[in-house]
Design brief:
Alpha-Beta Plaits; four-stranded antiparallel β-sheet; binds inosine-5'-diphosphate; binds magnesium ion
Length: 149
């Protein structure tokens, strides 16, 4: 079972797209195990985007992600990382497939609405960066056998 950390970034929150975005993961069949609405500070942003530290867009990225509240979530499922990334779409919204979140709502890479972990290892690491163990909920979904054989 994999976990992925999903963020509705500040542009998604400001544009009133939280419900739309949550609904897409929910309808896909991923299972929500944690959710909180937070203002990221610079220290959390630096840790979350540490792999991008040397990139020319790093400072803009930190400003963007800390510019307003984000909706942070952990979603669980078989191959949850790949499933979430295909629901999110390509990093550059103009190249993202129509039907994906970025392909339906985005125009620019610096306003691409959503974050999703890029590997199962990072799914666990990033979930632990945003959530304490007691903030994640273990629950049985009544529809489970209709989503997974
Ligand atoms: P991902 O979000 O699709 O995994 P990454 O390559 O991990 O994409 O980049 C992290 C975030 O950094 C992107 O979602 C985007 O917000 C931002 N970013 C990536 N490349 C650029 C760029 O060339 N210019 C501006 N922002 C960028
Ligand atoms: Mg990434």
């Amino acid at each position: 079972m994999e976990r992925t950390l999903i963020l509705v970034k500040p542009d998604g929150v400001q544009r009133g797209l939280m419900g739309e975005i949550v609904g897409r993961f929910e309808r896909r069949g991923l299972k929500l195990i944690g959710m909180k609405f937070i203002q990221m500070d610079e220290s959390l942003a630096n840790r979350h985007y540490a792999v991008h530290k040397e990139r020319p867009f790093f400072n803009d990225l930190v400003s963007y992600i800390t510019s307003g509240p984000v909706l942070a979530m952990v979603w669980e499922g078989n191959e949850a990382v790949a499933a979430a990334r295909s629901t999110i779409g390509a990093t550059k919204p103009v190249e993202a497939a129509p039907g994906s979140i970025r392909g339906d709502f985005g125009m620019e890479i610096g306003r691409n609405l959503v974050h999703g972990s890029d590997s199962p290892e990072n799914g666990v690491k990033e979930s632990n960066l945003f959530f304490k163990p007691e903030e994640l909920v273990s629950w049985s979904r009544a529809t489970e056998s209709w989503i997974c054989e």
